Amino acid sequence: MPHQPSRITVIDTDPGIDDAVAILLALNSPEFDIRGITTVAGNIGIATTTRNAGRILVLAGRSDIPVIAGANAPLSRKGFDTADIHGNDGLGGVSFPEPIAQPAGHDAVAWLAQLLDEEAAGTVDILALGPLTNVARLLTEHPTSASRIGRLIAMGGAIREPGNIGLKAEFNIAADPEAAEIVFASGQPVTLIPLDVTRKVRADRAYLSALRAAAKPAATISAELIDAYFQSTTGGESRPLHDPCVMLYALQPDLFGCERFGLGVDTGNSGDAGALLFDTNAGEISVAMTVNSPAALDLLRKRLIA
Ligand code: RIB
Ligand code: CA
Asked: Given strand 149-155, what is the order of strands in its sheet?
């Protein structure tokens, strides 16, 4: 399939095992002109997510791409991590080189606003793979710059699926419910990629073998990352590839079927904090609710072995 024209892209992320696979997918796809990686505390603390972004870029030979550190905590509540899943190093203990440079900056929000102001309106996409703290601050503190965002595609939430943080909440939203509420209420067009579809895009052992058989760096390290995911979680014979679904949607939206919802967020302090409150009669937010899983997995594999 001929490649779509390249789009200016920023990845906002908390790497994170599946974030790393998603970043490697983007780096191996010419449709993404990646201008920077902004980091956020999430799966693990900000120092580690920022270090990991640098490690992934060194491994991919793309240390030319700047890493800019962002929020070290949620907007207004105590954060929590998922080191039990992603490991204390955030990458499941998989061997990566060390960053060769310090982060290019420590104010991801100001950096994002400047990029948006410098580029033509509507030409900069943000792919959000972690808690929405940086995105919410961009919308709040730099509304004019934020109005120039092209596509905002975020992994998060659960509509008709059970949550993965308690019964209803999904981690990226539960980690900073107030930030998600700001994003959903802002009027900024956003496409949400929830557990309803990401749990259907699953890698099994045969898939890992196919990645390894290609003997290509991005595929081999992705297989190791997903293998680490197998070690740290239970889930039968396969594991969901949450964050890569954001890039897969950006690459080929017709792999997904979307519905429009009015979205709110439970910002209380119960075990359901971060759960999505949705109104099927409203329609501000486009939410991916179906996915062609075999085709999505095939596209991921083809790009990682390229
Ligand atoms: O719920 C899945 C999300 O939480 C993914 O982004 C994963 O990296 C974790 O951050
Ligand atoms: Ca993530």
From this structure: 67-69, 32-39, 7-13, 124-128, 149-155, 191-193, 285-291, 256-265, 276-279
pLDDT tens for residues 97-147?
999 989 999 999 999 999 999 999 999 999 999 999 999 999 999 999 999
Domains of the chain: 7-304 (3.90.245.10)
What is the per-residue pLDDT for 1? 59
Query: Which two structure tokens, joined as six digits, stand for 14?
Result: 């908390």
Output the CA 16–ligand 1 centroid distance in Å: 8
Distance CA 13, CA 279 (A): 28
DSSP structure string for 177-191: HHHHHHHHHS----E
Instruction: Of 10, 12, 80, 23, give the one whose Cα is nearest residue 218.
Output: 23
| CA–CA gap between residue 5 and residue 105 (Å, rounded) | 29
Per residue in 33-82, pLDDT tens? Answer: 999 999 999 999 999 999 999 999 999 999 999 999 999 999 999 999 99
CA 130 to ligand 1 centroid distance, Å: 6
Report residues whose beta carbon is within 6 angstroms of any ligand 1 atom.
14, 16, 18-19, 42-43, 129-130, 155, 164, 170-172, 242-243
Chain segment 212-246, per-residue pLDDT in tens: 999 999 999 999 999 999 998 887 899 999 999 99
